[in-house]
UniProtKB/TrEMBL annotation:
This is NB-ARC domain-containing protein. Residues 57-228 form the NB-ARC domain. It comes from Panicum miliaceum. GO terms for molecular function: ADP binding. The lineage of its organism: Eukaryota, Viridiplantae, Streptophyta, Embryophyta, Tracheophyta. SUPFAM superfamilies: P-loop containing nucleoside triphosphate hydrolases. It comes from the Eukaryota.
Length: 320
């Protein structure tokens, strides 16, 4: 069965500090506020291992979260970073990396999180790196999330590790990626071989898997129905719709939101019979699967969705 956000947070790991074990507790996050039924797939009891958040016998540990798009990698990383009880780190930073690897962008985002008073406008790469090294070398134990990481070039990855190697022992880097090959590349190079900065052992890495059709139906059901709602006449159709999710909880949750507004046999039959070529279950882009929920979205939601589509992924919208 899928694990909801509350259960995963309780299991996500223990951070060691001075012989004490700190358990992650409940807190409000953007992910939690967006949906009461946020779901993670593929997390089992191995998530209780302290190795999920690094080992203390290495200077800096990289904790990969690996899985297909829509499985909850970003949400899981976000829940760790936002947890107020994870107070063993002096500084925290979040960087949306994307397919275009930009060392200066990554370093600047981290540096701004550590010391926002440093002016980085039109600065050179070396200026940024010198300042980041100075900040990290001042006994800072950091927690950094590198979200949506794609780069596999060994030389670029070594430069990234060189830039981040100056943190205090026990610093952590959480890295979300769709490709296990990225993790393999990060395990190579001089700094990895010297154990200064490298991924945790494979047994401690987090690998998210797809849901079964039954599990997708559970996600849809939690979103579409209240605790006392009558589900008679809709479950059989709902299970058939769940098979369209491709095992992706993000798609199941989106469909559940739409289906909660259209709880009639006729409406659900129409959703079930809508033909969309999803292609391969494992490799087709998640957005294509999400088109089914978009087709049946309310008009005002469609307008909002279309407006937000003008912004690139990872764009930060300032509060109004």
């Amino acid at each position: 069965m899928p694990h909801n956000l509350k259960k995963v947070r309780a299991k996500i790991g223990k951070i060691e500090k001075g012989g004490e074990v700190l358990k992650l507790g409940q807190h409000e996050t953007r992910a939690e506020n967006s949906s009461k039924n946020e779901t993670f797939a593929g997390i089992n009891d191995e998530a209780q291992k302290p190795g999920m958040v690094g080992r203390t016998n290495e200077d800096i540990s990289i904790i990969p979260i690996v899985g297909l798009g829509g499985l909850g990698k970003t949400t899981l990383a976000e829940s760790v970073l936002a947890d107020k009880k994870v107070n063993v780190f002096d500084s925290q930073a979040w960087v949306h990396v994307s397919k275009v690897f930009d060392l200066k962008k990554i370093g600047s985002a981290i540096l701004k999180s550590i010391n926002s008073s440093i002016n980085l406008d039109n600065c050179a790469l070396q200026f940024m790196q010198d300042n980041l090294k100075r900040e990290l070398a001042s006994s800072i134990r950091y927690l950094i999330v590198l979200d949506e990481f794609w780069e596999e070039d060994a030389e670029k990855l070594e430069k990234l590790k060189q830039m981040l190697q100056h943190g205090r022992k026990g610093s952590r880097i959480i890295l979300t990626t769709r490709n296990q090959s990225v993790v393999a590349k990060l395990s190579t190079g001089v700094l990895a071989h010297q154990r200064k900065i490298r991924p945790v052992p494979e047994s401690d890495q987090i690998k998210l898997g797809v849901l079964s059709p039954d599990e997708c139906w559970e996600v849809i059901k939690q979103t579409a129905f209240g605790s006392d709602d009558d589900q008679s006449g809709l479950e059989e159709i709902g299970r058939q719709i769940a098979e369209k999710c491709g095992g992706v909880p993000l798609v199941a949750n989106a469909l559940g939101q739409v289906m909660s507004e259209l709880r009639t046999v006729e409406a659900w039959e129409k959703i079930k019979d809508t033909k969309i070529n999803f292609g391969s279950r494992y490799y087709q882009d998640t957005l294509e699967r999400l088109m089914l929920s978009y087709y049946y979205m309310k008009l005002d939601f469609k307008m909002c969705f279309t407006y937000l589509a003008a912004f690139p992924k990872g764009f930060v919208v300032d509060d109004v």
